[in-house]
Amino acid sequence: MARSTMRIPRTANVYQYTKLDTKKQQIRLLKLSRPPSAANVLPDRNMIHCELETFDLDTAPEYIALSYTWGDASNNQHIIVGNKAMAVGMNLFDFLYAFRSDDANIRHLWIDQVCFMVSL
């Protein structure tokens, strides 16, 4: 899989978390967008685009959980959440890059490093 990653300029808007409703049992899930088609080559084709959505636990869609506890956290890449940049480790970036092309219907992920309010 030949690709080049792109770094987001430091002047780009950085993703800011919104608070969860403490009166409800809520969860944040990352909804991964599929990559643009090969015929639609865009400058940001290698960027990972997604949304961070909030759900009540009892109505959340099916999702895959991934614990982000492996690898070197000093080698960061960026994903685009909404229209904001979020730093993630290279290993998570590689996973998301590969998973977004998967034909599985599951598009929601719970990734502790992304869905919690934590920073690298």
TrEMBL record:
Residues forming the Heterokaryon incompatibility domain are: 63-115
Protein name per its UniProtKB record? Heterokaryon incompatibility domain-containing protein
Q: Which PANTHER family match?
A: ANKYRIN REPEAT DOMAIN-CONTAINING PROTEIN 39 HOMOLOG-RELATED (PTHR24148), HET DOMAIN PROTEIN (AFU_ORTHOLOGUE AFUA_8G01020) (PTHR24148:SF73)
Report the InterPro entries cross-referenced here: HET (IPR010730), HetReg/Transcr_Mod (IPR052895)
